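Structure ticket #2291
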Amino acid sequence: MDTNIIESLGLEAVAIVRRDGMFLDGIIPNYVDKETFSIMSATIFMSTISTYSEFKLSQPEKITVYNQGLNMLLYPKNDREIVVSLFSSDKNPDDIYQKLVNLIK
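Resolution: structure written out below.
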């Protein structure tokens, strides 16, 4: 994955993760365990999908987890993969989403 994505969007991390939790590609800090990061990201995503399914709804376009320091954005890249990004809580998640969709295809 191109480090310019991190720099241009001011992200802390970005990754492509399979829905089963396997890390495929990305740039995350060295102190973060890639396997744990990808498994937990997939768990968040798939749990949300399951919840929507129980309500007979289609899967969400994107999932945003808000925090005082870092927000997390997850969205499906395709039927098998998701994009996960972490960014400062002062950034607009919708702007990050639009830019990532255009950069990661």
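Closing remark: The chain has a mean pLDDT of 95.
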